[in-house]
Amino acid sequence: xxxxxxxxxxxxxVFLALAIGVAMGTGxxxxxxxxxLRRQINKAEGGIDKANDENAQLREDLERAAQTDQALxxxxxxxxxxxxxxxxxxxxxxxxxxxGSLTKLRTLLxxxxxxxxxxxxxxxxxxxxxxxxxxxxxxxxxxxxxxxVLQIGLTTAFAGALRESxxxxxxxxxxxxxxxxxxxxxxxxGYQTPDDAPEGLDAxxxxxxxxxxxxxxxxxxxxxxxxxxxxxxLRSMAADGPAPVVVASAAVGDEAEQTRxxxxxxxxxxxxxxxxxxxxxxxxxxxxxLATLLALDDLDAGIRGHYGxxxxxxxxxxxxx
Length: 321
Fold this sequence. Notes:
Blueprint: H1 5-24, H2 31-80, E1 88-94, H3 99-111, E2 115-122, H4 134-140, H5 147-167, H6 178-185, E3 189-192, E4 213-218, H7 230-237, E5 245-249, H8 265-268, E6 278-280, H9 286-298, E7 306-307
Parallel strand pairs: 1-2, 1-4, 4-5, 5-6, 6-7
Antiparallel strand pairs: 2-3
């Protein structure tokens, strides 16, 4: 929206000058000064009218864009329907990211036929600056209480739980990792079940079975920095070979283009990671949502790639050049 601060300050100053002139006598304001003040008032009022018109136009544009986006999202179902039929998918999201993009991602995952197991949220309790942590040490069953030491054990154990559920065959009847359920119960992680979740799906059962694929969603300013949790988890998951992971981020706000690859750039520039998983840097666009779904589908064929609009991308969409 247009910033009216300049116009308001200008108009206030003009009226203040007039008030002073009236209070102290017209001798302080000659005819030329009065005319100049009138011109400034008219100019300020004209600027405000123009700004109001521009704001109204922007509101119309935003409403039109939202309607178009909804129509495109609905049409996206035709493109993804059945792509991930019955494939277990878990979303792992940072806090302080674009929620609109995350919601649309979950919608498309459901439309693709995926067995969506919900969304884990990385709580700010996992920041490295939290000091000693007796509760986390108890969950990890370790005598160490120093946070940096605990963090290594935590990211390794969490990555191991995700990797174990991915490496088991799809028909596996194995139960879910108790570690992840304990982290949710202690509020180190949040958990949200998907819409229309089947009976019995919760934090204690979300990783049951096998054949899992994962979407990690972050952004330019996650509440828990990626270097504290997300990146160590990804490195651990990819330590023994390609991981069934797509990392996606949305570029929104006034500095969208400057921060487009703030999250995925660290992966694209890391020689130990960039060939082991896929990234998408434009989750705010329909093409980015589709790229995420298609990249998840490609994991089954062993294909990894980097998609979107920012530095380090290979193409905008999987299969395109």
